[in-house]
Amino acid sequence: MPLQGNSISEVTLKSAHARYAAHAAAACGYAFRSLDGADGYLFEVRDGARVAAFAAGAGTPYALNDARAASVARDKAFCAEVLRQADVRVLPGEKFFVTKRWSEMRTPGREPEDALRYARSAAYPIFCKPLSASNGLHAEVIESEAAFADYMRRVAREHFAIVVQPYVRAAEHRVFVLNGRALFSYRKSPPQLTGDGRSTVRMLVQTLPRDPETPEALLLPRDERGHRLSLDETPAAGAKITLDGPANRSAGGGAHDLRDGAKAALEHVALAATDALGLRLAGVDMFDLSGDGRDLCVIEVNSNPMIATLEEAGRWDLIDAIWRANFDAALR
């Protein structure tokens, strides 16, 4: 049932994008209407005779990016290759298919058996993630050949290909680019726990926010000295535990030092990446390998970035700025 006008204030829309669009529409004096009831995964915004529909959920609501550029960015291997061709530094990586489906449509050398052969001589730990997943889903640190084989079996249930990269432990940053400039940036951190002297690591992990519908990832906790911990160990009260893996918010990671714009070195790399891909809006993730901004390396470029970090920080001014630009691109 469509919801419009003041009725949206009485409903908590399930779609975060719908909430952001409704807020920005009110600020612009535009009419907002959910075409998906209280869920809000399909909605429209109207400015007089101009109207645009937006889909969230499995789709992207961002009109600023064309389908060609967004499709290249979504494929992590294709994205990395385009950036390499533009002399933007990226992490090295190998692409492998985890299923034999559609093997007749590709040349040999990257099939599941090739991946297992690669794993026999890989320099562990390595970092693996599906070619087109988001939110850190199935992004895991793998420490052995047996763990790699198990990872392939698990991922093949939902995905057809993966990217294998060296595991890097360095400061990670996100730069949000909008229309050729860095709108905001922040430092990312992997999920962290604090011991209470009573709970096991496994029990502490259960306190992290997590989507119950997503499959559980293989957790690799370590202490402040970098030593690996068992999930059944009981850390001392106040002990800090880091869970190696993705630093995504959806995986329990943190966001720190949120600021307008970005440091010059970070902005330079982020703009080079989005220019190479042809994106007007993107979240560019990168490692600072040197720790001083002189050796930056792009991890990936997200053409459909979530902005819940801004909501948590109360930065509705930035949310409105993003959606105002999106309205300008979509309303016709």
From TrEMBL:
<feature type="domain" description="ATP-grasp">
    <location>
        <begin position="80"/>
        <end position="327"/>
    </location>
</feature>
<keyword id="KW-0067">ATP-binding</keyword>
<dbReference type="GO" id="GO:0018169">
    <property type="term" value="F:ribosomal S6-glutamic acid ligase activity"/>
</dbReference>
<dbReference type="GO" id="GO:0009432">
    <property type="term" value="P:SOS response"/>
</dbReference>
<dbReference type="InterPro" id="IPR013651">
    <property type="entry name" value="ATP-grasp_RimK-type"/>
</dbReference>
<dbReference type="GO" id="GO:0071160">
    <property type="term" value="F:cyanophycin synthetase activity (L-aspartate-adding)"/>
</dbReference>
<keyword id="KW-0547">Nucleotide-binding</keyword>
<keyword id="KW-0436">Ligase</keyword>
<dbReference type="Pfam" id="PF08443">
    <property type="entry name" value="RimK"/>
</dbReference>
<dbReference type="InterPro" id="IPR011761">
    <property type="entry name" value="ATP-grasp"/>
</dbReference>
<protein>
    <submittedName>
        <fullName>Cyanophycin synthetase</fullName>
        <ecNumber>6.3.2.29</ecNumber>
    </submittedName>
</protein>
<dbReference type="GO" id="GO:0046872">
    <property type="term" value="F:metal ion binding"/>
</dbReference>
<dbReference type="GO" id="GO:0005524">
    <property type="term" value="F:ATP binding"/>
</dbReference>
<dbReference type="GO" id="GO:0005737">
    <property type="term" value="C:cytoplasm"/>
</dbReference>
<dbReference type="InterPro" id="IPR013815">
    <property type="entry name" value="ATP_grasp_subdomain_1"/>
</dbReference>
